[in-house]
Amino acid sequence: MSIARYAAAQNAAASPREIELRAFRYVNGLLAGAADVPARAAALSKTTQLWSILIGDLSLDANGLPLELRARLISLGLWAQREAAARMLDAGSLAPLIELHRDMIAGLEAQASVGARPTFRAGAA
């Protein structure tokens, strides 16, 4: 089985929350391991891509989260995108992005431990 098919099969069996956790962990791994310019650019690009997907989902009327929470998450996402764009242009620290993603991971894990509904609509991220 190819890696792409294996990943697709894994995602098909995962809950939306698990997929979101994987996405944040993956991007954080890229950011933490960005030791050179190409790796840094790739990590920042994936960060922007992740937040674009999340913001798009949060913007949908069909998203089940309360409007105020959605607005706050969109605001965080827009900040993350601006921060990623700024870090593409300089050698500034990636720590603020990594910390934001750690907070998102902690929040998703906390929801999982109490059985709360997924953060984003099924099929997102």
Folded structure, characterized:
- The radius of gyration is 15 Å and the shape is globular.
- The C terminus is likely disordered.
- Helix 2 packs antiparallel against helix 3 and helix 2 runs antiparallel to helix 5.
- The protein is an all-alpha fold.
Low-confidence blocks of residues: 121-125
Overall radius of gyration: 15 Å
Largest sheet: none
Question: What shape does the CA trace take?
Answer: globular
* Helical residue percent band: over 70%
Tally of contiguous helical segments: 5
H-E string: HHHHH
Beginning-to-end CA distance, first to last residue:
24 Å
Content of β-strand: under 5%
The SS-based structural class is mainly alpha
Mean pLDDT: 88
**Total strand segments:** 0
List keywords for this structure.
125 residues; 5 helices; mainly alpha
In short:
With 125 residues, this protein is an all-alpha fold. The chain has helices at residues 3-13, 16-32, 37-58, 67-89, 95-114. 22% of the residues are buried.
List the helices and strands and how they pair.
Blueprint: H1 3-13, H2 16-32, H3 37-58, H4 67-89, H5 95-114
Helix pairs in contact: 2-3, 2-5, 3-4
